Amino acid sequence: MTDFKKIGSRIVRGLIEAVFPAKCPVCSKIFHRTRNNDLSKQDIRNLDFEQVMSPFLCPQCLSGFSPIESLDYGENSRQQFRKSRSFGNYKEKDEETVFAKAIRCFKYNEKIYLAKPFEQLLFSVFVRYWEKEEIDLVMPVPLHIRRFRERGFNQAYLLIRNWRRMAETFHIGSDFRIERDVLFRHRWTQPQAKLTGISREENVKDAFSVRNCPKIKGKKILLIDDIHTTGATVNECAKVLLQGGAEYADVLTLAR
Ligand SMILES: [Zn+2]
After folding, report:
1. Considering the entire predicted model, what is its pTM?
2. How far is the CA of 86 from the centre of ligand 1 (A)?
3. What is the whole-number distance in angstroms between the Cα of residue 71 and the centre of ligand 1?
4. What is the DSSP string of 217-241?
5. How far apart are CA 242 and CA 28, in angstroms?
């Protein structure tokens, strides 16, 4: 973009923001955006929630973010994935966090514009915790075709759609590929959010399958989802990927 165009678009954006203040998707409060989320001068490995989300959430919701403090999730003998990381907490003191509420707005209330900042936050965690040779394929947890048609999008895919471009922008020398045509959810399942513990495991048991095994043979895979609660879904996905010949599967989610 030429400088002239850049200045033009900045003026237009300024005018739009002055005339149309934003509505916070989490609490519905009207607020004035104070910053834009230009990340070019930020350290991509340590993106700051407030900076990234400030054009989208009101100041009060912004300050309610709860970062993940411990990476120690305890051992689970049935765990099929190698390691898992997330950007923020899903619950705090049994209460859903602002972050979780914003994710719900994105997924169920058509606030698709949140895909952009969420994707940036997720990419930040990816480059912070994975070395470039650690991942060959990045895969969204798939939806059942019926759910996909109902919703119109796979929220997990929207969280990685621009990762290749972002890797170039931020000079992350990594040659992972986004792969959407290997892992499928062939069985209809209830939304996990409505279930607890063991019934979540039952719900997703044998719901996934791998087509085209040669594509994943010996590959190091990163599974992407919006929320990691009991891990039942990603565990099932990791199981079929390993059966299909993957070397390992890791997990990255926005919240946990
Ligand atoms: Zn708010």
Report:
1. 0.89
2. 22
3. 28
4. TT-EEEEEEEE-SS-HHHHHHHHHH
5. 44
Q: Cite the beta strand spans of 76-146 per DSSP E.
A: 84-88, 91-92, 95-96, 137-140
Question: Could you give the dihedral angle defined by the CA atoms of residues 196, 129, 183 and 117, in that order, rounded to the nearest 10 degrees?
Answer: 80
179-227 pLDDT tens trace:
999 999 999 988 887 888 789 899 999 999 999 889 999 999 999 999 9
Name 125's Cβ contacts closer than 8 Å, sequence gap at least 6. Answer: 85, 86, 87, 252
pLDDT at 32: 87
Pair type for strands 91-92 and 95-96:
antiparallel
**Closest to 154 measured CA to CA, from 116, 90, 107, 195:** 107
Name the stretches of the chain with pLDDT < 70: 1-2, 14-19, 35-37, 72-75
Q: What's the pLDDT at 17?
A: 64
Q: How far, in Å, CA of 102 to CA of 250, rounded?
A: 24
Could you tell me the residue ranges of all domains in the chain? 39-255
User: In CATH, what is the architecture of 39-255?
Assistant: 3-Layer(aba) Sandwich (3.40)
CB 191 within 8 A of CB 218: no
Quote the ligand 1 centre to 57 CA distance (angstroms).
5
Ligand 1 centroid distance, CA of 124 (Å): 23
Centre of ligand 1 from the C-alpha of residue 62, in Å:
7
pLDDT score of 11: 76
Distance between Cα 126 and ligand 1 center (Å): 27
Contact 210, 183 (CB under 8 A): yes
